[in-house]
Amino acid sequence: MIGSGRCPSALVIGGGLAGIASAARLAESGWRVTLLEARTSLGGRAFSFEDPESGRELDNGQHVIVGACHNLVSFFERLGVRDLWYVQPRLNVDVYDRAGRRGKLYGLGGPAPGHLLSAFLTYRHLSVGDKCRAVRGVIAAMLAKRSAPEMDTISFYDWLRSHGQSERCIYNLWNVIIEGTLNDNISDVSAAMGLMIVQDGLLKGRLESNIGYPKAPLGRAIGLPSETYLRQLGVRMLLGCPARGIEVGADGMVRCVVTGDHQMMSADAYVCAVPFWVLPGLIPDHLAGRAPFNSLTGLRASPIVNVHLDYDRRVMDGDFCYFLDSPLQWVFNGSGIRGTDRQGEGQSLTVSISAAWDQIDLPRPELANSIAEEMRAAFPKARDAQLVKSTVVKQRNATFRCTPGAQRIRPTPSTASPNLFLAGEWTDTGWPSTMEGAIISGYNAAAAAISSLGGAADASEENSGPPMV
Q1: What pLDDT score was predicted for residue 2?
Q2: Do the bridges between strand 92-96 and strand 320-323 make them parallel or antiparallel, or are there none, so unpaired?
Q3: Is 50 exceeded by the pLDDT of residue 456?
Q4: Residue 367 has pLDDT above 70, yes or no
């Protein structure tokens, strides 16, 4: 408890979205906040960088949101960057097979889930029988209780098979939805989290599944505006200042954080908003053996690979599309999204590969050549175009995996140390590894810290809904 008349203080470790949200919520509540970030900019895994050859600003990966990301969109509004994020008025996704046949997943007006019925019935990549199975699968998903303990013990693939879904239906429909949102194959994600995506992302409302993306590089759409907003709130930011360790007293209370330049920084409360694989290296051994830290070894990460391609002419129409049974997966028209796509000029595209187990260890030149070949097969205009430049960005630990059993070991914000709190999309937010989940986790950690010192705060504006890639 903090004595009356004194503003409590907090030290937030980590300047990703979870740390940003936690620092903002605490500062908005009148706390004195210091934020430590190892990098020289904010944003965490949502960042952009300058390509040394072209001088062009590239994102580390194609980030996508959906209409259900209510906390995230609200935060963008507070940052003043809502206009830099486009969200479809209605779901509209072109899906191609390797023969070039196009199907479409789309939404119509009217109440959910009826707004998707036409898409399921007209989807070209399912047979008539599979379309009927898909409708039955939707009904079963609507009625399923995803919070039932057994849902976290089986895969979503097994759940779908037990509800009459064929292999073709699973991989031509359900996996299209799951692979990009959970960054994993449908056979490896839990039924609980798969159902969360379907129930809250597809069926909860007609706007929830609408896809969005930034119209500017992530540095301008997230990082710099976050820095400006936190400074306006009075948050002290130490960028390029990594935390090296957290010192804990015999009573379990955190005493200070030791920084990379051997400073010892103290506060009333500490929020650790770092990736789950970084956290064990910060805490002392006697704390690491206690819950929730001792369960973190059960969490795993999944990779994402993005390949940025610059062509000398227009290759692709539309903003984005998905490819079945192809390493391309999602292809985004960066020039079109950023408003620089001009007839007769070059075009910049991004291939985004989720669950990139087959690509993560390939040499970059080999991977770039392979993707370029796939692009020539998928886009007729690419066969006559010159590929001017390609840039491969690998993220080995892009997201945590929502495998069966993972939900049980995701920790709450509170820890065995009364003044140490956890934030990060890997904590128990009800969401998978997304920007929305990161924002919720930051709010949850701030609420726990405020509550522990005698105050009160809402955990989040709304902590339900599906994800972003």
Answers
A1: 59
A2: parallel
A3: no
A4: yes
